[in-house]
Amino acid sequence: MSSTLDLVRRWCDRTPAAVAVRAPDGELTYGELWRRVENLAAVLRERGVGPEVPVGVCLERTGGMLVAVLAVWAAGGAYVPLDPAFPADRLRLMREDAGIGLVLTWPEVNRALVEGVPDVLELTPGGIPANAPVPGGPAAEPVAGDVAYVIYTSGSTGRPKGVAVPHPAVTNLLESFASDLALTSADAWLAVTTLSFDISVLELLLPLICGARVVVVSAGEAADGPALRERAVAEDVTAMQATPAGWRILVDSGGVPDRVRLRLCGGEALPRDLADALLSGGAELWNVYGPTETTVWSTAGRVAPSPAPIDLGEPIARTSVHILGPDGEPVPAGEAGELYIGGAGLARGYHGMPAQTAARFLPDPFSDRPGARMYATGDLARVTPDGRLEYLGRADQQVKIRGFRIELGEIETVLRSGPGVRQAAVGVHAGPDGQPRLVAHVVPDAAAGTEIDAAALWAGLRTRLRERLPEYMVPGRMNLLDALPLTPNGKLDRAALPVPEWTRTVGVPYRAPVTAMEVELAGMWAEVLGVEEPVGVDDDFFDLGGHSLTATQIIARIQAAFAVAVPIVTLFEHPTVAGLAEAIERLDPDDLDLIGVAALRDQLDGLSAEELSTLFDELAPDA
After folding, report:
1. How many CB atoms lie within 10 A of CB 184?
2. Contact 265, 244 (CB under 8 A)
3. What is the pTM of this model?
4. What is the distance between the alpha carbons of residues 208 and 200, in angstroms, rounded to a whole number?
5. Distance CA 419, CA 422 (A)
């Protein structure tokens, strides 16, 4: 099997003038991409990078990020994503655990994120060493290293754990999908996923082994539905992969452009209504499934229109799946069991954690290959009577929130370390919008009869959580309890954790909207977030349970109501009704016609779907 670097290099030699990468910093041809990879790899070798040497990549989403990944491989090392959006303490834990002595970054990254690193190499956005001369002489051949990357996932012990993935597993993934999806040099793939999420491996590298073009969007664009849609149209994108939450951002922002014919959805269960929306216009939709420990995706299947069921598809090349009972034996068809995955995609294991590796990476009795292993996913599945592989949920405390895999125990460890907390548990509850939300159930540490300042306690805990965990792991609500519910044998009864009341933010005094815009915004928030009480102008959007998907819905409503272009970042920077209203007024006050909003809404309500479609085409013929 050729290495991924070999597969990329073939296209660099075959079509050096073709565009390989488009990013916020410009474009790179295949020829220029490879020259920059060779130059950076030479610098890395001089700094001690070789086989098995981990290199931190703490870069924004530019063409240089892709250059850095390939250069680390060409030098023989393994890249370790260090997302600049993560808290400094979490990045420090990851660096220390991986044994990172060199981090690639750029001047704009907060220096606190790389504090204490022995060697920091700054790159330009295009991946060129900023202050390091490139060694002279002919370029050295890529060095063969076993581990391709170490990606950290949430850990049940309170510390993230690194999954070490070997090169052959990456190559097997890419070659399998290249065969199934049949990409050509005419395709362009929209890359929207952070490097710290392993599905980025497919979207960044698959286009490059097919001679296609990868379009890297900035972190801001990835979270901004209208901006993302605009970029997809401008770049003539034909393929994209996202989680269900990511796809909804596009669907709720005017729909996925028709030109995007190839659509992959994974990371969590694909709802039927979303699948139907993604199948519109004759698009090709694939449901993909797999844990980080088996290299991105292990199964894939074409999704058929309703009323056909959605399943996990078939194992990709050189991959096997087994549904086993507690005795380790296959369960009969139709019965639920734990899903085990074997074959070429298995990771080496958890970095520096032999006991945890041995517990999840087990000998594979179904393989005739010596030393073969299989991974116990913790996912429940069954084979239906008609032979489909059906996902049934988790068998442990691990959950998926907007595609991110989360160990509830890691969040609970941070909560219990906070002052004023005696006990804590994290539950996952359906919010008013039907989407899963994390809720912190806290038993305060206070003397009997003492009044608890819930607002102050929650404010302190949220600060503590945000200092230690990525934003997607921070619960959106706190629920105070006298005691955690227990099972008869004294264990936490997660099923009995009470469903929270989706009311206003705890402890924030209500202040009524005054201006016409504040009234409109408060009404939008209450409707989108499902808050039963009136929303006050000082209520925080994210404390009410808002997230990137609901933020996109709010921005779409604002732009429709007020006829003013509002970047989604405005809501993140001004998360209260009062603050957002003031920010919108500053954007373009001449475009705000509050009096006409109600009349326009009445007119639109009277139109049929066909009339609305015709009107939209007239207003935005190129959208």
Report:
1. 10
2. yes
3. 0.75
4. 13
5. 9
Tokens (6 digits) for 50:
């070789």
Give domain status of residue 72, yes or no: yes
Question: Following DSSP, what letter does each residue of 236-248 receive, concatenated?
Answer: T--EEEE-HHHHH
**129 is a domain residue:** yes
What is the full DSSP assignment across 266-282? -SS---HHHHHHHTGGG
| Average pLDDT of span 139-156 | 80
What CATH number is given to the structural domain containing 206? 3.40.50.12780
Could you tell me where the beta strands, DSSP code E, fall in 154-306?
161-166, 188-191, 213-216, 239-242, 262-265, 284-289, 299-302
Place of tokens 């997607």: 472
User: Do 102 and 165 lie in a common domain?
Assistant: yes
Q: Are residues 386 and 405 in the same domain?
A: no
Name 437's bridge partners: 429
Same domain, 89 and 209: yes
What are the φ and ψ backbone dihedral angles of 581, each rounded to 5 degrees?
-60, -45
Q: pLDDT grade, residue 449 (50/70/90)?
A: low
Confidence of residue 181 (pLDDT cuts 50, 70, 90): very high
DSSP helix/strand/coil, 61: coil
Structural domain count, the chain? 4
The mean of the pLDDT values for the chain is 86
